[in-house]
Structure prediction request, 1988 residues.
Amino acid sequence: MTQIVGHFIDGEVVEDSSRTQDVFDPALGEVATQVALASKDTVEMAIASAQKAFPEWRNTPPLKRARIMFRFKELLEENRDKICHLLGKEHGKILHDAAGELQRGIENVEYACGAPELLKGEYSKNAGPNVDSWSELQSIGVVAGITPFNFPAMVPMWMFPLAIVCGNCFILKPSERNPSAPLFLAQLLHQAGLPKGVLNVVNGDKQAVDAILEDKRVKAVSFVGSTPIAEHIYTKATASGKRCQALGGAKNHAIIMPDADMDNAVNQLLGAAFGSSGERCMALSVVVAVGDKAADALIEKMTTAMQSLKVGVFDNTDNDFGPVITKQHQEKVVGYIDSAEADGAQIVVDGRDLKVEGYEKGYFVGATLIDNVQAEMDSYKAEIFGPVLQVMRVESMEQAMQLINDHEYGNGTCIFTRDGEAARYFSDNIEVGMVGINVPLPVPVAYHSFGGWKRSLFGDLSAYGPDGVKFYTKRKTITQRWPSSGVREGASFAFPS
Amino acid sequence: MTQIVGHFIDGEVVEDSSRTQDVFDPALGEVATQVALASKDTVEMAIASAQKAFPEWRNTPPLKRARIMFRFKELLEENRDKICHLLGKEHGKILHDAAGELQRGIENVEYACGAPELLKGEYSKNAGPNVDSWSELQSIGVVAGITPFNFPAMVPMWMFPLAIVCGNCFILKPSERNPSAPLFLAQLLHQAGLPKGVLNVVNGDKQAVDAILEDKRVKAVSFVGSTPIAEHIYTKATASGKRCQALGGAKNHAIIMPDADMDNAVNQLLGAAFGSSGERCMALSVVVAVGDKAADALIEKMTTAMQSLKVGVFDNTDNDFGPVITKQHQEKVVGYIDSAEADGAQIVVDGRDLKVEGYEKGYFVGATLIDNVQAEMDSYKAEIFGPVLQVMRVESMEQAMQLINDHEYGNGTCIFTRDGEAARYFSDNIEVGMVGINVPLPVPVAYHSFGGWKRSLFGDLSAYGPDGVKFYTKRKTITQRWPSSGVREGASFAFPS
Amino acid sequence: MTQIVGHFIDGEVVEDSSRTQDVFDPALGEVATQVALASKDTVEMAIASAQKAFPEWRNTPPLKRARIMFRFKELLEENRDKICHLLGKEHGKILHDAAGELQRGIENVEYACGAPELLKGEYSKNAGPNVDSWSELQSIGVVAGITPFNFPAMVPMWMFPLAIVCGNCFILKPSERNPSAPLFLAQLLHQAGLPKGVLNVVNGDKQAVDAILEDKRVKAVSFVGSTPIAEHIYTKATASGKRCQALGGAKNHAIIMPDADMDNAVNQLLGAAFGSSGERCMALSVVVAVGDKAADALIEKMTTAMQSLKVGVFDNTDNDFGPVITKQHQEKVVGYIDSAEADGAQIVVDGRDLKVEGYEKGYFVGATLIDNVQAEMDSYKAEIFGPVLQVMRVESMEQAMQLINDHEYGNGTCIFTRDGEAARYFSDNIEVGMVGINVPLPVPVAYHSFGGWKRSLFGDLSAYGPDGVKFYTKRKTITQRWPSSGVREGASFAFPS
Amino acid sequence: MTQIVGHFIDGEVVEDSSRTQDVFDPALGEVATQVALASKDTVEMAIASAQKAFPEWRNTPPLKRARIMFRFKELLEENRDKICHLLGKEHGKILHDAAGELQRGIENVEYACGAPELLKGEYSKNAGPNVDSWSELQSIGVVAGITPFNFPAMVPMWMFPLAIVCGNCFILKPSERNPSAPLFLAQLLHQAGLPKGVLNVVNGDKQAVDAILEDKRVKAVSFVGSTPIAEHIYTKATASGKRCQALGGAKNHAIIMPDADMDNAVNQLLGAAFGSSGERCMALSVVVAVGDKAADALIEKMTTAMQSLKVGVFDNTDNDFGPVITKQHQEKVVGYIDSAEADGAQIVVDGRDLKVEGYEKGYFVGATLIDNVQAEMDSYKAEIFGPVLQVMRVESMEQAMQLINDHEYGNGTCIFTRDGEAARYFSDNIEVGMVGINVPLPVPVAYHSFGGWKRSLFGDLSAYGPDGVKFYTKRKTITQRWPSSGVREGASFAFPS
Prediction:
């Protein structure tokens, strides 16, 4: 019998069960629990709570706000096992992968601990004669985050710790596929001392999203998800006067240069392509080999390496990756492999018929390697979001870069080479926001910012890091001149004391 | 017989005269010249020129780009008289006011000269073991600016020097009311050494604007104008995936505290309210006096001070301000004074029937002072954009601040006081982006950024200064690890030299 | 029977008892324990340990170094009571005062947690054509800190957390008056995960100091103490090629303007003058009243307020302050009061004959207020470092500022006023490094930097905060161009794989 | 008959001829002019002038100070030919080399134009509840620069533009070998609008230097010269309480890796080793070849390339370099070549007996290449400061780096390689402050900072760029809280207006 996952509003769990939806365990292929779906009223209650908490929270010194984040970090570390278990159960990712996700989330909390440093304005003495001017990064008010199923803990922690430490109150609308982990995070943050109302979690579907987007009290929206939804959110949020950053899909290419250290490259690609079943917006899903010699070596070594990959349930840490998120998604991934085959590509390693013993109803897809993929194939154009690595063969680095620059997305990319000039030319001229040199998953560390180019990000500020601080604050500029003063000049002796 | 003001495309003036519009001399009330109105084709030609110039320009070192701005500053100073004359002739502002406008524009050019400093990224050694990570602020590509009639030189220079020095190519669509000055600026910048195509000017109306907004090659749009248009531009530009900052209208209040140095305040307000006929988005159009004693003193001193104001033609520098921009605008301003009167406010000084000898057809409105204005009057709600100062009377500083915070706009505001705590409380809690303490026009200097709050700015980055650099660049983050190297370890001796 | 307080070298407490010195409990006036005095050999052993630990520590990613500081903060909070007790026992300060000291130390640890942000270098793409340049803030090596008796926990924590998180190895030579707290801090930091050798503590006297100053392996020295010693340390350290920042004495003045909120000022001054028995380099020891009216009011209110001050032993938290550090220091403080009296000043409140019941041998001096002090008196020229507040009377703000600017020291100062212009004029023109506006102890928060002017600081970088990062790192600038590459251009196909 | 080069004090050239010294034309080997040698009185007059100018200059807004630098840049460009001629005549460097020197100087002026940006302090709102805190970078006062003969224009411009734009008044003591160019620079800066007294030039010898170092009114000293003098200046200046940065000698090594592009390397080394006759602190004077194959290739190609080098008089721009500075210096350089030969090194190309037709008395030394140099040779240990390139042969990159790290100096260094990992390992671990990757003269651009390590720089802040701003300003931190205010709360209605 399942319990319902509720909302977290004004410091308390609210179990609003008028509308609910099933949450699955993707390894078992069974319903694990149910999640409440917020009505417009519930969302408005959360916003009202945030609005009420705002005046006091914005006036709390940044150092005090930061100290709650210091304590939150401690609690995250103490509750590491529980959080990873929640992630594994509802998402399917293996515990070591969940631990990695959590760690990246904690890094963002650590960055938020630096709020007093990050919120410094700029002070100009004598901007004019006896005129001083300075900037303040003031809190915005109520801001919201809408986050995807693939990182139920990390992506929310890209957003709310920084938004909150900047003095804002936050509404989190996590994915309804795996709501338990984000709810627990909110509880921990309150345990760390956050005043009620500063962070509210509402679970829900489009109704909740629309309620957020339409409410005038919400001043900013951060979103991570697929490109069509990202574009919709961005258009709707900006049209209602909000600031918005909306991160969308990706198709991340690695270029293998003839001088690459091939063993190293294969080793790196294995995790980058198949980790978390490829359900990462930074997953490496296309390898472009420059020259057939490199391509042949890659295919051979990769095929061998893929033999040892283990697929299965999250709490067996011998496994390398788990199921995909839903039955429908499993079918979609398999469909893309079918279509690549139909379009003439070679399925070198085929993960379509994988069965995992004891988990026969689980949504598993095995690691798949496809050779001779062409730019016009559907499997190339779309973001598959599964454990599928496609190989393309080109004659030159220029051709490889052209492929990448022509693609709709521009999230991450990588080159494998030993050559300084190739690396520099690539990073300078590639139309992608996050670039790796021999690093296949170039996710910026928490003290830099995360953002793709082209249709991978809508907005002008990237997520978290320095751009996150800009996004979650608004600039106020003060210009000050004091008129000549009786007090200073001695007239003040007559001043009534 | 008038000459046609053309476009500036690919380094040359293009006299495309298929569609034209009259440009008036507002002091004479006569047609001064005509301006070409660009067709969609003309706009696309300009964009194509910019697109072509981009690859080389983005690769030009920032220091070299900055040196063109150093030279541009020299040319602006050498051509000061000519530029001021163009401004006066087509806008009506007095030469000393035009010189002030130009000077604020030059300050933005000076700031742009610091490009090598401003474009520094952040470098993190050992982001992980032997992994380095850094950010680059890369050029965006083709970007556009759409600018208003009231600062034909300054507002374009808020935009194009910084955009260009950041490695972008720029399309300027200035106001069709006074196109000569911006066209001349573009010519000077080319004289300073700018490669052709890097800055293009297209004159035009809604057709040109729509062509810019709809073109996928334009990556960013900066706009300054009225709020309804700003909102439209922002919604349309963001919906087509561009980044956009759109600055709109204003209603800037000054609070006069009982302890203010009243002579100083009156002196400051005179220029802030009536300078440039009040046609400034930072004009001080409302004074809120705290206590009747302050209000009475203000009215009395202001009435006296206004006697000496001189209104007339731009090239007589004894004049304090000139005409408003058009006949229609003159009527609109007078209409607001009428409506205030009808609504029960007192017209203390009445500028409605002003006649300027020798310029009887000019669009003049005299300086006007209105007392006992109430929040529900139309004259209070709207941005009048004329030489009209309205006085409101309140009992407390809190009431004064509430008025400001309740208004639709949040561009600029000011308080007159000698008291440190009043100033700090005001600047902290007022919902306005640019705040003056005894400074009635708190326009941030060029090395800070300009931006209002609420419906005065759409977007998350302010204009010019540090925010301008962010707006005109996009972040790229590189993460780099070098695999162990034969060269370093000595295997390299066998290396083919 | 007393135990000996040893050193902490290479991760272990070293009980080197060849030379020792008594450590007193100043409230009891009795020996509390003994401290080992390091020989030159012991110091060199510590330096050798640090030197050995350096290569691995400098290569540890800043994020990992920072995480040890996160854990150190937790341990400091868990051990708050023990640390405060150690401070109270050997220094005499009341537990609430000790808690305040510890809290300021923890703030510096919190700042150090931001190391990844603080250590960012600056990256310039295209410093020349295809030439990039960036700066790194590299670790220096072995650095040392020599710290005073008055803040046995805080001043060391101004230094070692930041130095260590910047990748350096640290030798701490704390005051031999109260060595137990710093030793315990070192143990906690190792408990937090610091590798052995990265922090070593050597107790000792001039022999230890000289060994540090003369050792070529020590690259930088931070010192806090009296001005004559600071000057000696600075001269000696720089002559041996080290970088050095040496903070010395102070004589901090507050100006009371006629418009000051006198109740607030008195309330603030009480703690600032007498807290910690005035044994603070930021203690407020002189009040300059502008006008006799202000002076008379100040004297009257201060006299009344001082009635309620309680002096006694550290673990009775009803007490306001405790004894001074030694018998000799007690005599020195009393001597200055005597000399002021002899020079003609009025002893308004006299703390010379204070007896504390049950602690008759304790080194107590009661809170003392002296009026009509003159600039030529010895009690004015010297830093008394006791609970003595001297009042001077002047006719104007200019006279008050002249007094301050003429004094040898320039550590901290403060003005009490409500007037914006007086405050701005004061802060602009006063020759003092740390300035308070209605804040009597303007100690910069941990994310700003601490440093006096004139003979209060020798060196060009202040302590802790942003300047601390500069002091504990050395700049390396890399300029990079890659020659055109066979790999990129395709020659690479022939490359031996 | 020669004219005397005087001083520039209080805005005027002072021709104080009591003591003079010959200035030579090194190509002719004849006296070109004479320079006045300042007495202590003359230096004190200059300091007094600076002291007098300081109060007004520090209060001049940074933007206004910067505008004088904008104008100074224009004048430098207009007077380029004259300055280069002065440099060539008294130093001997060829006009194109002089133009390069001037250009690097101008870059520092361009950087100084950014003063309003560079002088921003940090502003922290709510450092505590209702407490704000910010930092100001205040001017120091009178500061001095002592500069060497080898860059008579550039090195002074590393110092005075930045010092002055930071609000200081400057005393320049240039080399007495070539005083005409710096004197002319001072005149140009005054022509640009600098108030008199803000920059003073005193020519002189040790007497002038000592007068500067001993004067208490001088608050900071920047020095560039040889290491023994640098150390003396640093010790003396710091002992008298001044801040000091003293840049000394160098021995800059290039490592040639086996994979280097040898043609490119040779081409680069030619200029880096022999340009300006090797009289540069960043001259590349040692090449360390890894492997005999690389060494042999290097020697062969370098020998060939050196054939085409032309040596002669400055105003024939076909020449590559000119004479060394004095007869004595010529003898010293030749002596080092002799000693290398005596110690067993091979003189591959010998420049000792060079005669230049028409300039038989000139102080010429031809380009010299020496192979098989060993670490214990005098010619290796010392800084030769002549057109002499020494080659060392090692077996591995580690050996090459060990050589560099063992050398007394740590100014500049460079590696030639195509390999990313070799470059990264080198730049990370080499004990040198300025590192080139395929860039033989890694002089940081003006918006980074110049500073060597080890005995190449005494002090903790590098020259020019961001560190220069720190060096020429002192931090003031203000902490502000306003007590609750009658004015804000309405009591103020009774306020006397």
In short: Chain D touches chain A through 28 residues (CB under 8 Å).
